[in-house]
Amino acid sequence: MKVLVTGAAGFIGFHVCRYLLARGNEVVGLDNLNNYYDVNLKKARLNKLQASKSGSSFHFCKLDLENTSALDELFLEGQFDRVVHLAAQAGVRYSLENPHAYISSNIVGFMNILEGCRHQNIKHLVYASSSSVYGANEKLPFSEHDNVDHPLSLYAATKKANELMAHTYSSLYGLPTTGLRFFTVYGPWGRPDMALFMFTKNILEGKPIDVFNHGKHRRDFTYIDDIVEGIVRALDDVPQPDSSWRGSDPDPATSFAPWRVFNIGNGRPVELMSYISTLESLLGRKAGINYLPMQPGDVPETAADVQLLDDAVAYRPEVTVEEGIEKFVRWYRDYYSV
Q1: Distance (Å, whole) CA 21 – CA 60
Q2: What span, in angstroms and rounded, lies between the C-alpha atoms of 12 and 231?
Q3: Do residues 236 and 154 touch, judged by C-beta distance below 8 A?
Q4: Which stretch of DSSP H or E encloses residue 128?
Q5: H or E element: which one contains 22?
Q6: Dihedral of alpha carbons 139, 141, 144, 149, sign
Q7: Which end of the chain is more exposed for a tag (fewer CB within 10 A), N or C?
């Protein structure tokens, strides 16, 4: 199987590529290597892929999603079987500062991916959505059967738009699509703009950490290996139309088309302050904390109902928060020689 993975130099994309290569797939990794965060970290991930035992089966393409003609050519020449689309402009808070970046990458770029899949008869498109689509919803845990029409950030709105755009292509052209709503992914090779990375860096450097909503957050932290296992299982399970779906009582989780969305999380929310306490214990240092109010676009709690993904592909996250943080700290100390 030949798979195109977009965002291959990113956190999740890197781990997905490594998994697919290890099991014998041919992988073409696309990334534009933008400077949203440290480009050297992205290049280090790519070097790791190319230096692996399966590195000869990995081919890297530096390309912007918005470059329609170049992306069309890549799809035409690539002859891919399936696509894992993870490239996007990430970050809720950054969407308040630079909204145009989200439209370019997450809307225009996703449109180009859909067109490439349509014209080259891709057998299955799996793409990254986000738990942020639940927005103002307060019913917990978040379920795919719930309405998600009240996003609180432009980032969330673009991810909801991706799900709608995918449904259009699934219904019009029979393109099988699966959207995965990620819940706070963490682990080795993680993004520097994510909480665990920033907390670890500041604590080791003796700097205070910023804790929003005065620490009264609960998050469904999900370890990267569990996320990757879920992604690949979903990739291997091509969606079929739901024969029980009815327009008179529409279920937001499924469709008459070969389209579906899944939560992909840990299913066990953790108090943010407990998360920080575990990190302090592993680092052997106490954190200085700046308690701050809730940020615009943020939510106080996330919790994933993962029953649908479990029913579909036997997805069962296994890594505890304590184990996951320990693995991250070990990687961080090694990578930065701390």
Answers
A1: 13
A2: 10
A3: no
A4: strand 124-130
A5: helix 11-22
A6: positive
A7: C
> Measured between alpha carbons, how far is 104 from 95 in angstroms, rounded to an integer?
12
Residue whose pair of structure tokens reads 């995918």 in the numeric block: 166
Distance between CA atoms of 103 and 273, rounded to whole angstroms? Answer: 34
Residues 6+ apart with CB under 8 A from 254: 242, 245, 260
Give the separation between CA 17 and CA 10, rounded to whole angstroms.
10
Tell me whether residue 180 is exposed, middle or buried, using C-beta atoms within 10 angstroms of its C-beta: 0 to 12, 13 to 18, 19 or more. buried
Tracing tokens 């005065």 back to the chain, one arrives at 214
Q: What is the DSSP letter of 265?
A: S
According to the model, what pLDDT value does residue 97 have?
A: 86
Maximum separation of any 2 CA atoms in the chain, in Å: 60
Contact present, 82 and 49 (Cβ < 8 Å) = no
Annotated catalytic residue 127: no
DSSP string, 142-161: B-TTS-----SSHHHHHHHH
Prediction pTM value = 0.96
Active-site residue, from 102, 155, 169, 332: 155
Burial class (CB in 10 A: 0-12, 13-18, 19+), 226: buried
Give yes or no for residue 54 having a pLDDT over 90.
no
Residue type, 101: A
d(CA 236, CA 121): 16
CA 90 – CA 98 distance, rounded (Å): 11
Cα 166 from Cα 145, distance rounded (Å)? 17
Structure tokens at 283: 């680092």
Residue with tokens 């912007």: 64
pLDDT digits (tens, 9 = 90+) for 160-173: 999 999 999 999 99
Per the document, the length of the chain is 338
Which amino acid, 328?
F
